[in-house]
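Posted in: Structural Biology > Protein-Ligand Complexes

Title: Requesting predicted complex, iron/sulfur cluster in pocket

I'd be grateful if someone could produce the 3D structure tokens for the following input. Sequence and ligand are given below.
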Amino acid sequence: MPRMQIVTDEPCFQNDLGDVIRLFFGEGAADEDGRDILTHTHREENGLWTDTVRLELEGQSQLYTLSAPAVSGTPVEVRRYAKRLAKRTAYQALKQATGRELPWGSLTGIRPSRLFRQQMETGLTAEETERLFRDEFDVSPDRIALVREVLDTQQGMTDGNPDEMDLYVGIPFCTTRCSYCSFSSGVIGDGHLVEPYLTALLSEIEACAALAREHHLLIRTAYIGGGTPTSLSASQLNRLLRFMHESFPDLSEWTVEAGRPDTIDRAKLSVMRQFPVTRISINPQSMNDVTLAAIGRAHSAADCLRAFEEARAAGFEDINMDIITALPGEDLPMFRHTLEVIGDLQPDSLTVHTLAIKHASKLHEIRYEQRTDEMITQMADEGRALAHRLGMRAYYLYRQKYMASNLENVGYARPGKICRYNIDNMEETKGVLALGAGAISKRLMGHDQRILRAPNVSNIETYISRVNEMVQRKADMLKAKPEGEENHDTLG
Ligand code: SF4
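-- Reply #1 --
Done. Output follows.
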């Protein structure tokens, strides 16, 4: 992998240029001690901006220049447009040098649909925004079509109401650690931390229900995620759900990320059915046993089939499944096998992820044969085609750093099976009270919907011993005034 140092006469764009380099070569590719060099210059002359990028890459030298009319406006606007031109010039230079065309072009943000909607809120038409995506960010036509599909499906679901917030509850335990996992979840081991964690969590739930009443918040949507919430025993799950139900009685949408099929049994499904849990997620990731073993999941494809059938038999009418493209060792026929099995099961929603390898994951250390951009894109497109065949439409979309082939994660759902929490969370159109280790609460502030965050600590033992402080952070977040110098972007 090339290691590229950045030399620029606009030091404030150093990180942005680094982001573009990482799009092509991955984490660690932008390196101040690297042998390769990207030199960027920005000039203004006669009302024209001209950006030049010279690449010294693996002994070859290449030059790329782009010009655009100079933009006037506030310093923030000028900087935004100048940054776009710098990133686009770097993208074009690297595209020319590598022969790789990336689906999202020079766009490095994680919420393309949100950006599209924000542009339209400034007065651009959908067609003008499409042009912007195509001409200023080099986004491919099929990714623009995907964004449009998401926005169509979301219509009427993204209006913010400052009194409405969602609820997130995190269970940071898993039976084993997936090799691609970069979360702070702990392996449950002998389970000695589970009871003290639950006790702390229930106290946080109780205190936050009181805060919600004090601030007249409407909380209708809840998501229990992790980790793997069903790694709790049936009686622990019962305690948690009962306590949540009593504390937040007005929930109309309630998802439990059942996640690992090996943690799902009839007793836990029956517990969930006693409460108004409306949606569960059973996540195979792959239906190939050899892959499941390779990525550290302690279950087989047969476990997924059993868990799914038991969930249907228990009466669940809204079941999501997650799959991942570009898993180690998987080729197109293997991925197609997964799609075929999922197609037969007919879940109500399907999330097609693209593998992202982060520094904190085990997979980061392991060498394996990478599939081509074409093959991985084909996998994502075939996942999309299956979702459409099952009568689903894309309803949310996000990107992460270091995703294979720079693709995306897409949630598809049948009509009436959309998870509002996912839209609120990904589009950041509603605040969230987020409880449990590592959870980050958010509140939208004022007319410009600035986001104020209150993060909980990630370490499980620290969370248990400092849970009162986590509640106080949320109390401070809810008390903060929309405007005023006493506010900070992050509390705690
Ligand atoms: S199930 Fe999720 S949280 Fe648990 S180890 Fe796997 S990726 Fe990490």
